[in-house]
Amino acid sequence: MKHHFTFETENRYLVPSVERAVQVLGLLAREPRGMVLADLARETGIPKSTLFRILVTLRKHHCVTLDPESQAYRLGSYLFELGNKFAEQSDLFRVATRYMQSLAEECGETVFLSKLEDGEVVYLRRMDSPKSIAVVKKLQSRVPVHCTATGVALLAWLPREEVEEILDRHGMEAYNEATLTDRDLFMHRLEEVRRRQYAVVDGEYNRELLCVSAPVWDHSQRPCAALTVAILSSQVTDESRVARVGEAVRRAARQLSRELGGREPVPA
């Protein structure tokens, strides 16, 4: 029997213990030094007795480790193995490497491969150029869609009702004074992105970065991923440079789409 999930109905199918385990792993992913039981309990709100059982289970499967001296939990080696298996099994991850390398060399900037997952941008891989600015080195694994070039590029070709559902679920938080939070203006932005075929967002999430992004298409003409070039805003003194980067990103994304068997929508 097929199940059709929506944002409103999916919660009834969640397994609380699994959801808590994923929450713990997400916290540990942000703390290189690890976290002790008390800190994890405080951050998650999970009772210590329950949390301890979750951690024991995760340790058994090498998803976390326990430092005997500090009593700090850290991510385990099994997650690294799973990550490698994901890369091996993903045509997108494998094929995109060549295009990311070429784009990084052409633009002299850092290039990211990302996708849309549960209404958020998830970064899959980063490719650095020797000329890349150090500020781009650290990147959160998930970022909002409404104020990032990647998110805007991915939303621009989704049905309006799907975009509205994502915005209803995640909101349009203002991260600084440059963040666009007006929904009507945001919809106009998506129209402009469709016309230009790539998205440009300057400082709306990270004040220091100007990012340019273009979608990668699947066989159904739906955006399945995006290529994004990140530039230090202070280094952009000529608008023509943004246009050149935009055309380079669009070209690379189109070529990647075709190699993966994707079809670019016919412009209206």
Total number of beta strands: 8
Q: Span from first to last CA? A: 38 Å
Q: Give the helix tally.
A: 9
Provide the CATH top-level class of the largest domain. Answer: Alpha Beta
What is the topology, as strand order, of the major beta sheet?
A: 5-4-3-8-7-6
- CATH level-3 fold name of the largest domain: Beta-Lactamase
Percent helix, as a range, is: 40-55%
Beta content = 15-25%
CA radius of gyration = 20 Å
Mean pLDDT: 86
The shape, in one word, is globular
CATH superfamily of the largest domain: GAF domain
Structural class: alpha+beta
In the CATH hierarchy, the architecture of the largest domain is 2-Layer Sandwich
**How many domains?**
2
> Could you describe the largest sheet, including whether it forms a barrel?
6 strands, antiparallel
At a glance:
The protein has helices spanning 16-29, 37-44, 48-60, 77-89, 91-107, 149-155, 160-170, 183-196, 239-259; strands at residues 64-66, 73-75, 110-117, 120-127, 142-143, 199-202, 209-217, 223-232. It has 268 residues and is α+β, with helices and mostly antiparallel strands. The protein has two domains: 10-81, Winged helix-like DNA-binding domain superfamily/Winged helix DNA-binding domain (Arc Repressor Mutant, subunit A, Orthogonal Bundle); 90-259, GAF domain (Beta-Lactamase), CATH 3.30.450.
